[in-house]
Amino acid sequence: VEVAAMLTNAVFIPCDSSYEIAMADRLIREGRTFVKPLRHVGEAPVHPDFVLRDTAKETVIEVYGMVGNAEYDRKVTEKRQHYARLATPVVEWIPPGQALESVVLPPIKRGA
Questions:
Q1: Cα(36)–Cα(86) distance, rounded to whole angstroms?
Q2: Which of 7, 48, 70, 73 has a CB 3.0–4.6 Å from the CB of 60, allowing a cystine?
Q3: Which residues pair with 63 in a beta bridge?
Q4: What is the pLDDT along the chain (112 residues), one digit of tens a residue?
Q5: Of 48, 58, 56, nearest to 24 (Cα)?
Q6: 22: CB partners within 8 A, 6+ apart
Q7: How many CB atoms are located within 10 Å of the residue 60 CB?
Protein backbone atom coordinates (compact mmCIF):
# COMPACT_ATOMS: atom_id res chain seq x y z
CA VAL A 1 0.00 0.00 0.00
CA GLU A 2 1.50 3.30 -1.04
CA VAL A 3 -1.30 5.54 0.20
CA ALA A 4 -3.84 5.08 2.97
CA ALA A 5 -6.54 7.35 4.34
CA MET A 6 -7.98 7.54 7.81
CA LEU A 7 -11.21 9.26 8.83
CA THR A 8 -10.54 11.79 11.60
CA ASN A 9 -12.23 14.75 13.19
CA ALA A 10 -10.83 18.29 12.93
CA VAL A 11 -8.19 17.63 15.61
CA PHE A 12 -7.13 14.33 14.03
CA ILE A 13 -8.80 11.88 16.40
CA PRO A 14 -9.26 8.71 14.31
CA CYS A 15 -12.92 7.79 13.94
CA ASP A 16 -14.77 4.97 12.20
CA SER A 17 -17.80 7.01 11.15
CA SER A 18 -19.27 10.47 10.92
CA TYR A 19 -21.25 9.62 14.06
CA GLU A 20 -18.03 8.98 15.99
CA ILE A 21 -16.71 12.31 14.70
CA ALA A 22 -19.81 14.02 16.09
CA MET A 23 -19.32 12.34 19.50
CA ALA A 24 -15.59 13.19 19.59
CA ASP A 25 -16.40 16.81 18.75
CA ARG A 26 -19.01 16.94 21.52
CA LEU A 27 -16.57 15.51 24.09
CA ILE A 28 -13.98 18.10 23.09
CA ARG A 29 -16.54 20.95 23.16
CA GLU A 30 -17.57 19.94 26.67
CA GLY A 31 -13.97 19.74 27.88
CA ARG A 32 -14.14 16.04 28.68
CA THR A 33 -11.07 13.90 29.32
CA PHE A 34 -11.25 10.82 27.13
CA VAL A 35 -9.33 8.36 25.02
CA LYS A 36 -10.19 6.90 21.65
CA PRO A 37 -8.86 3.35 21.71
CA LEU A 38 -7.42 2.13 18.43
CA ARG A 39 -9.23 -0.80 16.90
CA HIS A 40 -7.63 -4.22 16.60
CA VAL A 41 -4.75 -3.40 18.88
CA GLY A 42 -4.07 -6.06 21.44
CA GLU A 43 -6.24 -8.98 22.37
CA ALA A 44 -9.05 -7.10 24.11
CA PRO A 45 -12.42 -8.85 23.89
CA VAL A 46 -14.12 -5.55 22.97
CA HIS A 47 -12.94 -2.26 21.57
CA PRO A 48 -14.99 0.68 22.90
CA ASP A 49 -15.47 3.75 20.75
CA PHE A 50 -14.41 6.14 23.53
CA VAL A 51 -13.51 5.92 27.22
CA LEU A 52 -14.26 8.83 29.55
CA ARG A 53 -11.49 9.22 32.11
CA ASP A 54 -12.90 12.15 34.07
CA THR A 55 -15.65 10.17 35.81
CA ALA A 56 -15.70 8.36 39.15
CA LYS A 57 -15.11 5.10 37.26
CA GLU A 58 -13.93 5.07 33.65
CA THR A 59 -17.02 5.10 31.44
CA VAL A 60 -17.25 3.51 28.02
CA ILE A 61 -19.04 5.36 25.23
CA GLU A 62 -20.42 3.22 22.41
CA VAL A 63 -21.77 4.73 19.20
CA TYR A 64 -24.07 2.13 17.63
CA GLY A 65 -24.60 3.52 14.15
CA MET A 66 -25.46 0.35 12.23
CA VAL A 67 -28.32 -1.09 14.28
CA GLY A 68 -30.49 -3.35 12.14
CA ASN A 69 -27.59 -5.27 10.59
CA ALA A 70 -27.76 -8.83 11.98
CA GLU A 71 -24.00 -9.32 12.43
CA TYR A 72 -23.58 -5.85 13.93
CA ASP A 73 -26.52 -6.40 16.30
CA ARG A 74 -24.92 -9.68 17.48
CA LYS A 75 -21.68 -7.81 18.27
CA VAL A 76 -23.64 -5.11 20.11
CA THR A 77 -25.26 -7.80 22.27
CA GLU A 78 -21.85 -9.33 23.01
CA LYS A 79 -20.44 -5.92 24.00
CA ARG A 80 -23.39 -5.22 26.29
CA GLN A 81 -22.95 -8.61 27.97
CA HIS A 82 -19.22 -8.04 28.40
CA TYR A 83 -19.70 -4.62 29.99
CA ALA A 84 -22.46 -5.97 32.25
CA ARG A 85 -20.22 -8.82 33.47
CA LEU A 86 -17.52 -6.32 34.43
CA ALA A 87 -19.98 -3.74 35.81
CA THR A 88 -18.49 -1.21 33.40
CA PRO A 89 -20.46 2.04 33.14
CA VAL A 90 -21.58 2.54 29.54
CA VAL A 91 -23.13 5.42 27.63
CA GLU A 92 -24.78 4.38 24.38
CA TRP A 93 -25.73 6.52 21.42
CA ILE A 94 -27.87 5.01 18.66
CA PRO A 95 -27.90 7.39 15.69
CA PRO A 96 -29.52 8.50 13.51
CA GLY A 97 -32.77 7.96 15.44
CA GLN A 98 -31.40 9.47 18.66
CA ALA A 99 -30.14 13.04 18.72
CA LEU A 100 -26.60 13.43 20.03
CA GLU A 101 -27.77 16.20 22.37
CA SER A 102 -30.11 13.73 24.08
CA VAL A 103 -27.22 11.50 25.19
CA VAL A 104 -26.65 12.03 28.90
CA LEU A 105 -23.01 11.91 29.92
CA PRO A 106 -22.03 11.20 33.52
CA PRO A 107 -20.83 14.16 35.54
CA ILE A 108 -17.16 15.03 35.73
CA LYS A 109 -15.55 13.80 38.93
CA ARG A 110 -14.19 16.66 40.98
CA GLY A 111 -10.43 16.81 40.84
CA ALA A 112 -10.37 14.89 37.55
A1: 20
A2: 48
A3: 93
A4: 788 788 888 888 999 899 999 999 999 999 999 999 877 666 778 899 999 999 999 999 999 998 889 999 999 999 999 999 999 999 999 999 999 999 999 999 986 5
A5: 48
A6: 95, 100
A7: 20
